[in-house]
Amino acid sequence: MTLSPWLLLLLAVPLLLLGQFVLRSVPVLARFSIPVPVVGGLLFALACLLLRTAGLELGFATKVNAGWWTWLVTPDHEWLARPARNLNLPLLVGFFTCVGLAAPLRLLASGGRMLVILLAGTTVLAVVQNAAGVALATALGAPALLGVVCGSLTLVGGHGTALGFSSRFEQAGMASAATIGASAATFGLVAGALLSGPLGAWLIRRNARPASAAGEAQAGVAKPRPAVADFIADVRSLAALGRSALGHLLLVAFCVKAGAWISFGLDRIGAALPAYMGALLLAFTLRAIHDAAGWTWLRSDTVNRIAAVLLPLFLVVTLAPLNLAELAAVAGPMLAILSVNIALTLAFAAFVVWPLLGRDHEAAVATAGLAGYGIGSTATAVAAMDAITRQHGKAPRATTLVPPTGGFLIDLTNAPVIGAFLRWM
Taking the domain 2-62+72-212+226-424, which CATH number applies? Predict the structure, then answer.
């Protein structure tokens, strides 16, 4: 039985409330900085798996063609044909638009060492993932191309990069590259959602000094109940801004719509970039113009509150309909390569990137973010950083620099790395 995708939207808020309840009832999970939407979404996916095991075939459609939902993310000439789009696409593009609008030019310009280390480190990580994947695939008697698919194509790259390169992998001799890539990227998404937060929390507890008095209090013997994101409170805080929130929401909507045309143009010239790239680039540009002109009407705190609503909705709508039984198909060589690469990524983040970043609170949060997008996606990275900073104190440089690195800059270096491995094989 396949249920309507709109039911996922109706379930989104209840599942977020379920995640909050579980994290508050089981503080140890919150202390590991596992995000609220990850708990709620995966618990629902697990419940659906149990129903399937009991004989009730239950699933969700995830694409819609309703014009009112797809208009913002679709160029008008395509929209007139009512194409089907992923239900979560407007939420995803809206979130990345907020990433661009909330990034102050002065902070990005001062990113300096952290930005260079994040970008260079992730580029090296992409090479390591591919090299390890190819070596392991060859040792297991599988096609060498599988090592790249289970390497930076789907782990650093994610679903968008896997889809963008699928035709090139099929031409190189890997049939069903899109299906294999989607399975590997989904495996990475779940792993990144579950592991990146605990990595950052472990680094802070073991090695880093808290960044605030709140963090120092939590470093004491008597630890208070860890902070957990409250979706309803985030919605209320956004609504309380009134006209300012409305104006910023309209700006986000404008960037999403105009960004759909930019993404269409990038696609026409053959750029294999994620669907949100046009809106992200436009948002970065508008923010840079705003800051360079000395204007003050664009408020990062307001944009961040919009992102705090869009991100959990995107993640819970993405994770809840996952058919966890299908991940069982990620077996044999695929499972081995993905598991080794995930372990390598966590080790690389903890023992290479974190020391280079300085072994402090900001470094721990940034390292968790790198692990998040190095295994799963930028969205899971941001969710993990949000969970960490709510408990241990703010990390403004990390939370500003990680999203553009994982959401945009790494695509500029990961694509050539993938292309080099394709030519080499």
Answer: 1.20.1530
